[in-house]
Design a protein that fits this description.
This protein has about 150 residues and is an alpha/beta fold. The chain has a single domain, classed as Glutaredoxin (3-Layer(aba) Sandwich), CATH 3.40.30. Helices cover about 40% and strands about 20% of the residues. It has five helices and six strands, in the order βαβαβαβαββα. The chain has a six-stranded mixed sheet with strand order 1-4-3-2-5-6, with helices on both faces. Helix 3 links the parallel strand 3 and strand 4. The N terminus is likely disordered.
């Protein structure tokens, strides 16, 4: 697999707002997320191509990515759980606008993924602050981290 780079440009011919496609192994994925989290909180959306709730969550995740981008929060997708070869088609079908990449079994195990979708929030210090939170609570966790940051500065 190619090295995972958060922020890789969309493939040629991709529409504006299209998700950037990333590929990488578990070590590279974790390194990239932790590196990104040294300057901003990161929300990792572990999703699967066959998962209806994952696909239904994309519009809300797109909204979160837009809402918090100016506040320094990154949203990154990680497609795993089998059928990853369909990732590009599902990204187009769901109109996913945040960067996403394929997550192998080693990556999903290392991040404690047990169901789909599975969200992980990493704070500005690279510390995992929430794992396996339900979609309804993602924004509450982000808001709590933003409040913590405001109180520290």
């Amino acid at each position: 697999m190619d090295e995972l780079i958060i922020g890789r440009e969309p493939s040629a011919g991709a529409s504006d707002g299209a998700a950037m496609i990333m590929d990488g192994d578990q070590k590279t994925f974790m390194k990239e997320v932790v590196e990104a989290s040294r300057t901003l909180p990161v929300l990792v959306d572990f999703w699967a191509t066959w998962c209806g709730p994952c696909k239904r969550a994309v519009p809300h995740n797109n909204e979160l990515a837009k809402k918090y981008a100016d506040k320094g929060v990154a949203v990154v997708g990680a497609c795993g759980g089998g059928q990853e070869e369909r990732m590009n088609a599902v990204v187009d079908e769901t109109k996913m606008e945040y960067p996403t990449g394929k997550a192998n079994e080693q990556t999903t195990k290392a991040w404690g993924v047990q169901w789909w979708p599975h969200y992980v929030v990493v704070d500005r210090k690279g510390k995992i602050r929430a794992v396996g939170i339900k979609p309804d609570y993602v924004e509450k966790v982000i808001e709590a981290l933003m409040e913590e940051d405001a109180n520290v500065h």
